[in-house]
Amino acid sequence: MRIDLHTHSTASDGTDTPAELVRNAAAAGLDVVALTDHDTTRGYPEAISALPEGLTLVTGAELSCRIDGVGLHMLAYLFDPEEPELARERELVRDDRVPRARGMVAKLQELGVPITWEQVARIAGDGSVGRPHVAEALVELGIVDSVSDAFVPDWLADGGRAYVGKHELDPFDAIRLVKAAGGVTVFAHPLAVKRGEVVPESAIAELAAAGLDGIEVDHTDHDEPTRARLRGLARELGLLPTGSSDYHGSRKTARLGECTTDPEIYGEITRRATGAFPVPGAGGSGRR
User: Fold this and answer.
1) Residue 174's Cα: distance from chain center in Å?
2) C-alpha–C-alpha distance, residues 180 and 149, integer Å
3) DSSP structure string for 93-136
4) Is 29:165 a contact under the CB 8 Å cutoff?
5) Each residue's pLDDT expressed in tens, for the chain with a length of 288 residues
6) What is the pTM of this model?
7) CB-CB contact of 217 with 227 (8 Å)
8) Is 30 within 8 Å of 58 (Cβ atoms)?
9) Are 20 and 14 in contact (CB under 8 A)?
């Protein structure tokens, strides 16, 4: 089985619609794909209705969190999307995205960048506007060569010249809320140092003690020594090691299935979840 547990659609900051995403996942030879848009479940119905034969969909989200001033992302899988407390927190994060993006545009304009809010809104479309949309505007303007090049201190990195904060969950609260909604939590790309400051391993240990289920080990932003280090940490802390592409369509270079999760780990994730079930396409497996 080929299992990719971290992808994004136009419901947040990917370039594939949810329907295109599941079709592309099947075409890439995946057996299981997780839809984990930022702080939203809005893409679920379209992805489910378009799910091809033989492909199983894991519903999820990537939650924006912050601890001791350091941002981090928490992947949440197979939770009940209607659970009210978690839904309220996701809504607070989403509601803060527009004023935050407008703030970044204003800072960039102060720095002499000829960016406009209309440009960023056009790029975001119906998605939850975020830094990647602002970054793509910088690419369009020729300020940077790629979206990744915008996530540096000169521009949009945490604490950068044009950075603006937003409402973010405490990761301990995120774990509690996701578990209360029957879901499973995995710390996304925990040592992706090129994205900015990362949390110390001591904080990962504290999150594990609080009920964190896993850490994303195999990720395009982790080199081989980092993956080995994380695999050892997962063994030490009793965490599930996952692998995922973090696919964003054409917005980033990662390909669907570039990194994958071991079927036994996937089986354990689905065993622990009680809030939702994987959704099989026609003829798909999807058994727990």
Assistant:
1) 14
2) 38
3) HHHTHHHHHHHHHHHHHHTT----HHHHHHHHTTS---HHHHHH
4) no
5) 999 999 999 999 999 999 999 999 999 999 999 999 999 999 999 999 999 999 999 999 999 999 998 989 999 999 999 999 999 999 998 889 899 999 999 999 999 999 999 999 999 988 889 999 999 999 999 999 999 899 999 999 888 999 998 889 999 999 999 999 999 999 999 999 877 789 999 999 999 999 999 999 999 999 999 999 999 999 999 999 999 999 999 988 899 999 999 999 999 999 999 999 999 997 344 333
6) 0.88
7) yes
8) no
9) no
Token pair for 200: 């110390």
Q: Where do the H-state alpha helices sit in 111-216?
A: 117-124, 131-140, 147-150, 171-180, 201-209
- Which residues contact residue 216 at a Cβ distance below 8 angstroms, ignoring those fewer than 6 apart? 6, 75, 186, 187, 188, 189, 190, 242, 243, 244
Pull the structure tokens for residue 286. 């999807």
